[in-house]
Amino acid sequence: MDTRLIELGCYFRHQAAWPTAAVFQVTAAGSDRVRVSDARWSVEPNVPLHHYTDTFGNTCTRLELPSGVSVVEYHSLATVPDAIDEAEESAPEIPAATLPDDVLVYTLASRFCQPDELGRHAWRLFADVPTGWSRVQAICTWVHEYLVYTTGSTVPTSTSVDAFSSGVGVCRDFAHLMITMCRALNIPARYAFGYLPDVDVAPNPTPMDFHAWVQVWLGDRWWDFDPRHNNRRKGRVQIGQGRDAADAAMVTTYGAPWLQLMTVTAREVVQEPTPSVPTV
């Protein structure tokens, strides 16, 4: 399969009144489809880094932000298939009685996803839709059409109920609302986030940022669904997953440093074709 090369990275500049413990979750995750290379960190002033894997299988990086101004940067390259996200329209829903043990947790309510609050709406909207991939895609399309993407419309504590009530949100809220509707129907769904470059799509005029989407368990595996865009994309590189955004925060600080600046890089590296060498 042909591949594309994606440059990934992020930059955080904080100012702290005193040394502040922090956990960063920005490392690109490799997979059967994605090969990550040339990963590197830069921290100014220089402080020790400690990498570990959390309960949900995410790579996390611990450090202590020093008092004053500090800069944390992460960069890597990802080789991805020249193909859109995988799909299988015949993938079935699995009854709760036979779901894998480690998948059951993704049918339950969590901090930002409350199927118990929105369950009656989910059944009203989707009870008569054919089960399996068709029903999950119907939920994805409904969320995409129901919410209006509005930068700055929500806050870090906003829930799926807030998004449902207001009708506005950012990609995080689109993901939370879709997760909630799936779980209300006993379909396991989890929150995923990472890097999503504009590959073979019209460039997005807003500044690049991290992106959140949904993974749904159908058949015997997780599948990516993106209610913000409602289409299958090229170049998606995951960072982490969890029950909702609380389990997959890009930065967690144990204090209140001021985030002065954050930038995200996710763009294709245009490679010059190798010139042919004439044979004699």
Automatic annotation (TrEMBL):
Superkingdom as given in the UniProt entry: Bacteria
Keywords in alphabetical order: Hydrolase, Protease
Transglutaminase-like domain span: 163-229
GO biological process terms held by the UniProt record: proteolysis
UniProt keyword annotation of Ubl conjugation present: no
Protein name per the record: Transglutaminase-like putative cysteine protease
Gene Ontology MF, one: peptidase activity
SMART domains in the cross-refs: TGc (SM00460)
Pfam family of the protein (one): Transglut_core
